[in-house]
Specification:
membrane, 500 residues, globular, 0% strand, MFS_trans_sf, Growth Hormone, Chain: A, transmembrane helix, mainly alpha
Length: 500
């Protein structure tokens, strides 16, 4: 099942380093291309809360197999698309299928294994959750360079077929309850879909549309808040809720949800900021960006067993505080980023961030469900995974806004500090004008001013990226402090437990 989960999470970010190649391949505009990622996330967040109800109704094996088949077929059709409209539609279908598989794996890991095996299962699931979005740009960049962008989607087929066979052969560990098909809360489904789609769209597109200055963003925010509020009221009062909110009565779960939100912001935010810096400032190719990003994935992979031992031996709060502190330190190093940073500087940053995020993610997952009854685990899993994705959307929205605003602020500060009358500025302008004249430019002085403006804007953008890394570090530090307020939860012994 984790093979299917890995594919589903991987496909969120696998297109990140190859959007320009896809854009030229299907003749789309830059605005249209943003929907290739956005629509996948929109579809995921709508289906995730429904997975607990649907797996209870159909059974885990039937539900997962159906989702896996849909994911394979939609991946093939996405790779065969020739227009942006068909690609957006197929990415939406792919997002529904992927979003259906992700929470089911988490719930299964914490229900079918005996207590003494759950931390090991948690390590494996946590490894996939953190590793997949990190290696996504790496794999995507190299696949595009070696073959073509269409293989970003075709690559899902072999592991998809393997997952399909294995789950069909070995995944029969529960039965569905067909009676749940009667009395489905369709009003709740509609309110949830409208609310989540509206809020997710606002988070994804708000930064580029100047937030509430755009009428559509403003009214979608109002619509999202009203419908989501109505959905919560409906679930609390309806006799057969489509999404159970009972896990929120558990203190550890409620605190863990907040930490999941923050870790989602860091996980997806980090894989957004770094590739963007490498592409825009360092002018790296997709393959070069992927190679640089690989350090984080390798670090997480190697840290997984260590993180599992820490969580097994100590109170989960120790792992959460330690993990978030290390991740905050590593991410905070990016505040000093310059144009001269290369592979090793980013490797150092990613190593600390990778170790910290891995430990914090596994510890927080363990703590979040440590006091949740087994019969509520499917509902808890759906809510945890939904929160992680929403956290990623919040993180991307905050970082996009911060980059835009901070670049403008730093640009104004740099230009105001640069006197046109100073000898240094005059010498720079004279040198640039002379260079432009040698190149045969019609207006060498005007071209010189334009070149200076570009240099200042580049420096302002670098400073803004440093601010974005600092913002992520503050969020991680906040999560580490919040972890102290969780209730102690005793871990199960490594051996001697009894399975259920």
């Amino acid at each position: 099942m984790i093979i299917g989960q890995f594919m589903a999470i991987l496909d969120i970010q696998i297109v990140a380093a190859s959007l320009s190649q896809i854009q030229s391949g299907i003749g789309a505009s830059a605005d249209e291309m943003s929907w290739v990622q956005t629509v996948y996330l929109l579809a995921e967040v709508v289906i995730m809360p429904l997975t607990a109800y649907l797996t209870r109704m159909w059974g885990t094996r039937k539900f997962f197999i159906g989702a896996c088949i849909l994911f394979i077929v939609s991946s093939i059709l996405t790779g065969l698309t020739t227009s942006i409209e068909s690609m957006i539609f197929m990415r939406a279908v792919q997002g529904i299928a992927g979003g259906a598989m992700i929470p089911v794996v988490f719930a299964t890991a914490f229900t079918i294994f005996p207590p003494e095996r759950r931390i090991t299962a948690n390590v494996i699931v946590g490894l996939i959750v953190t590793l997949a979005p990190t290696v996504g740009p790496t794999l995507g960049g190299h696949l595009t360079d070696i073959a073509s962008w269409r293989w970003l989607f075709f690559v899902n087929v072999p592991p998809g077929l393997l997952a399909l066979f294995l789950v069909w052969r070995y995944g029969d560990f529960d039965k569905g309850d067909p009676t749940l098909s009667k009395g489905i809360d369709w009003w709740g489904v509609c309110l949830m879909a409208i609310g989540l789609l509206s809020i997710q769209y606002v988070l994804e597109e708000g930064a580029k549309d100047s937030w509430f200055q755009d009428d559509m963003i403003l009214w979608l925010t109002v619509l999202g808040v009203i419908t989501f509020g109505a959905f919560i009221w409906r679930q609390l009062t309806y006799q057969q809720p489509i999404v159970s909110l009972k896990p929120f009565t558990d203190r550890n779960f409620s605190i863990g949800i907040v930490m999941t939100l923050v870790s989602g912001m860091s996980l997806y935010g980090g894989t957004f900021v770094l590739p963007l810096f490498l592409a825009q400032i360092r002018q790296y190719s997709a393959a070069e960006t992927g190679t640089t990003m690989l350090v984080s994935g390798l670090t997480m992979f190697l840290t997984g067993p260590i993180a599992g031992r820490i969580v097994r031996q100590f109170d989960p709060r120790v792992g959460m505080v330690l993990g978030f502190a290390i991740a905050a330190y590593g991410t905070g190093l990016g505040h000093a980023v310059t144009n001269d940073w290369g592979f090793w500087e980013f490797a150092y940053l990613q190593a600390f961030r990778g170790v910290g995020v891995m430990i914090a993610m596994i510890a927080s997952q363990q703590m979040t469900v440590s006091t949740i009854p087994v019969h509520m685990m499917k509902d808890a899993s759906a809510l945890v995974n939904l929160t992680r994705n929403v956290g990623g959307a919040v993180g991307l929205a905050m970082l996009s806004t911060a980059l835009t605003q901070q670049t403008a602020r730093h640009y104004n500060e740099l230009t105001s500090a640069m006197s046109i009358a100073s000898a240094q500025t005059q010498n720079l302008m004279a040198g640039l004008s002379a260079r432009m004249a040698q190149l045969g430019v019609a207006d060498p002085e005007g071209a010189g001013y334009k070149a200076v403006g570009g240099m200042i804007h580049r420096e302002a953008a670098i400073l803004a990226f440093g601010d974005a890394f600092a913002l992520l570090a503050v969020g991680l530090a906040f999560a580490g402090v919040l972890a102290l307020f969780a209730s102690p939860a005793k871990n199960q012994p490594a051996s001697g437990g009894r399975g259920h």
